[in-house]
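During the first year of the project, the team set up a workflow for recording each protein of interest as an amino acid sequence followed immediately by a discrete structure-token representation. This format lets reviewers and collaborators read both layers of information side by side without switching files. As required by the reporting guidelines, we include two representative entries from the current panel. The first entry is reproduced here exactly as it appears in our internal archive.
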Amino acid sequence: MSGHKLLFSGLKLWTSGSCRWTGRHHDGVNRRGKAASFSSCSPKVCIVGGGPAGFYTAQHLIKARQDVEVDVYERLPVPFGLVRFGVAPDHPEVKNVINTFTQTAKHSRCSFYGNVNVGKDVSVEELQQAYHAVVLSYGAEGNRSMGVPGEDLAGVYSAKDFVGWYNGLPSCRQLSPDLSCETAVVTGQGNVALDVARILLCPIDILKKTDITQPALEALAESHVRRVLIVGRRGPIQVACTIKELREMVNLRDTRPEMMAADFEGVTEALKDLPRPRKRLTELMLKTALETPEEKERERRNKASRTWGFRFFRSPVEILADPDHKRTAGIRLAVNRLEGSGDASRAVLTGEVEDVTCGLVISSIGYKSLPIDPSVPFDQRKAIVPNNMGRVQQAAGLYCSGWLKTGPTGVIATTMNNSFDTARSLVEDLDSGTLVVSAAKPGSQSISALLDKRGVKPVLFSDWEKIDIVEMKQGEAIGKPREKLLTVEEMLLEARK
């Protein structure tokens, strides 16, 4: 941006070449309802994405420097990203981080602007002109596809969409998955795969006390699914879930595990060399699969009406269609063997295949980040923004955090650490002078003017709080913690009241 005077609506003249406002905003208060800083050269940082990565980055920046002002832009009218739309409804304790994010959002040096689609309503370049630094934290909204024939048949869903459906993500509202079959197959063995399996088999009286959406609750109440197989290309020692999720599966009411003893050959011998968390996870799996349970547990299993199990050393090669070639009737799995050992091992095809009859296939092989704006470097193969400690390569003043930075791995705590690291890089660049802040920048004032001109009305955090109250009231009426609004239109209607 040049050092020439620019005219912004709502401001008189503003000079980018110095740290003084040459004109006054008409009432000395900006759109945040917070006093505008006219003479200070406070670094203005914009964060794209109001999920965990965005809020943890904001939190660290505000704590690390007393002069930084942070604006968080989010495409949806509601904040919190995958904490709201990804975390399973029966994991309310994981959603407690929302309290921390709310504190950050209500901080005097932080503002939230929902209902703003960066890349469409406003470009990254426009944000870079208005802010000293831009942090991209918009996550991974794409799906990794299995890349097998029959993937587009009715009855095949991505875990991301299935999770979005039961968690009230507006774009997944129309999914209405067909749950009329007895067997479902989930491909992938991470925590999301186990969430999906658990929700499919969970007793309704447990689910109806959660914030699962009403349409999903009604569909699951009518579900015919009684058996879920969780398929992975490698073995028990490489399984991607954590012990907490496995334990929940093992203890899930009215279900019993159904494993194949052959999958566990040689696992007991390999235990001694495993790191402790992996060892405990594998021991629980071995116990569940091979040991004869005690009497009480045996009784519980015998009474169970539903079953679940891991299937190891299997890769999907085709989704099999019914005679009309419209619906899913089964899945063909290639049988693998492992080459190498531990985490470094690779699945190699044996040439054998086996078919499993099922009417529902949910692919849980990972989320994938998508490019947001042609001006931002993007590694198509790794599906991340190429970066060094969160500094976007060949793009001064541009940063990234969360899954966009690392790929979709780990739990919320992983994202927290990765976002704090990016914030540290940004603060280092401020402290060292690498990030130049001697020129004042208009921040949200110019962006608000641009959005206004384009007919985009941002949803502020105080507007989100109106939505929040409505959802909690609706939930309270039916014994749930909240009943989410399911469309952007409904959200905007409540926010505007």
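The second entry, processed by the same pipeline in the following quarter, appears below.
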Amino acid sequence: MVYRSMHHFSDSVNLEDKQGRHHYASASQLLKVSMDLSSSLLPLEDNGFCMTTPGPSDTSKDEMESLKQELQKWKERLENAEKVKADLQVCKLSADKEYVKLQDELTSLKELEENLHKESIKSKDIHEKELCVLNQENSKLKKEIEKLKEDLAECNSELSWDGKIEKKVADMKVEFTHMEDTKDDFSDINTRCVFSVTSKIPFKLNQNQALLTFEDAEVAQRLIKTGKHTLNLDRKTTDVKAMPFALGMGIKFELHITISGKKIDVSEVPELSIPDDWVRDKLELNFYKSEHGGGEVENVKYDKKSRTAVITFLKPGAANGFVRSTKCPFFVNGRQYRLHVSPSTNVHMEKLQLYSGISKNSILLKGIAETEDDEESVQDMIEIHFQKPSNGGGETERIKYVSKGATWVCFEEDA
């Protein structure tokens, strides 16, 4: 396109094509024709127009210059628009790539969610099975606990026996056997005694059982050989069985006791606000001139925490004077205290033996029927029956009947 002439009428441009035809276009229409964003800029000639130099009669030079400036501005705007278009296309490509990336991530997240859901269902099934197994084991354990409770109830008497061990040991049969010869230079330095100790043998007697011990072992063996016996209890007859029984475990040992002739044990030492060395000195001084004998002290071991002391005399036999005395005066700072004094002893066991056996003089009765009578009355009726020679019995030494629960009966070694 070539400009032939241009007139400025209200922002319009007069254009003439190559055939000489005139066209009027506004500035915005001219810009629209020129701003084809999908194609590159073309000269006006390529669009069918030619630009002609206006004559002096068409327009003034000022108007012409103004139009050129305006055209230049539109060209700059067009270039800026092209740059914006290019930037937008770059942004679009970047956005498309980001969109694809986000789509891939979304797909991965959906797959992960599905996998987690499957794992959750699988884990839930596993946990339900484990819970079912645990519930079964819990029920089994509850049954075992109930059984253990029943067994515990049966063993209550045995537990009570454990609680009586110390008392039974204290009631053991203790016999003095002999004095040991001293091997020291001085015959009175130590006293050595030997005792024979034998425990009683425990036997558990259960509910509805009776134990009888006869003076003559032949009577017990005869009743055991007969086996079945008929008793009259509370105007009713009941059949019982007489049988032998095995005793529990017993112990016997020798107890060797050595009483020192040089040492004494002191207890109940008062708490004094003086150093321990001073307390030792005062104890040494006190027993050096003791009215009970005493003498020169070789050593003093004092324990403040337990308030005890061990006094060792230099002369053998010096401690013998304290055998008959349990209290000794102790003077500190003008005040008198009472000390507990005892001979220093050493005790040890030898020849420890375990033994068990069968009591030939005793029988065990089982199958005694329950009656309304009290335990003592039933025991008397059983004893009367087995004392009669017509029933094969004889004189009894002792009898024990248990109607409820269980109890322990003790036997000595020669029973």
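For the second entry, the following points were noted during internal review. The longest helix spans residues 61-154. The chain is about 35% helix and 30% strand. Both points are flagged for discussion at the upcoming steering committee meeting.
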